[in-house]
Amino acid sequence: MRRALFSDTSFLYAQADEADSDHLLVVSIVEEALQQRRPIVVTTFIIAETHALILRRLGRDIAANWLQKAYDSLIIIRPTEEDERRACEIIFGYSDKDFSFTDAISFAVMERLGITVALSLDEHFVQFGKFTVVPLQTEKLGEVGRQ
């Protein structure tokens, strides 16, 4: 899964909300990923968090439509018990950061799967320091993480 890209809630929400200030940038990155045939991976935690956010901000119909598209187009990973343990280690080990459990689960799954590129607008992915974060560190995928 080294060519895969991991997406977080902030990125998925910006893609779903046409009024979001990052919408056009995010859409262009997704188009680039599709052209490069790079799969986009999320966890069930990200699906739940994104659906809840879209439901609350944009309404039931848009949330339901997004959920259907997510299951049709994303690779959805269920975190393991080991991922959960690793997430706790991350939270306890970075006591100066306010990583959520969902953030830490994302980091653990990315480590386990060998994914090196995160699609995120969340500074926590940069703070963790182990991934290239698009678009926060670079706005184009280019050759990033294409080993």
Question: What is the C-level CATH assignment?
Answer: Alpha Beta
Strand content: 5-15%
Overall tally of structural domains: 1
What is the element string, with H for helices and E for strands? EHHEHHEHHEHE
What are the low-pLDDT stretches, counting only 5+ consecutive residues below 50?
none
CATH architecture: 3-Layer(aba) Sandwich
- Helix- and strand-based class? alpha/beta
CATH superfamily: 5'-nuclease
How many angstroms does the end-to-end distance come to? 10 Å
Protein architecture, described:
By secondary structure, this protein is α/β, with parallel strands linked by helices. It has one domain: 5'-nuclease (Rossmann fold), CATH 3.40.50. The protein contains 7 helices and 5 strands, in the order E-H-H-E-H-H-E-H-H-E-H-E. It has helices spanning 9-16, 23-35, 44-58, 60-73, 81-93, 101-113, 123-128, and strands spanning 5-7, 40-43, 75-77, 117-120, 132-135. The protein has a 5-stranded parallel beta sheet, with helices on both faces. Helix 7 links the parallel strand 4 and strand 5. The chain is globular. The mean pLDDT is 95.
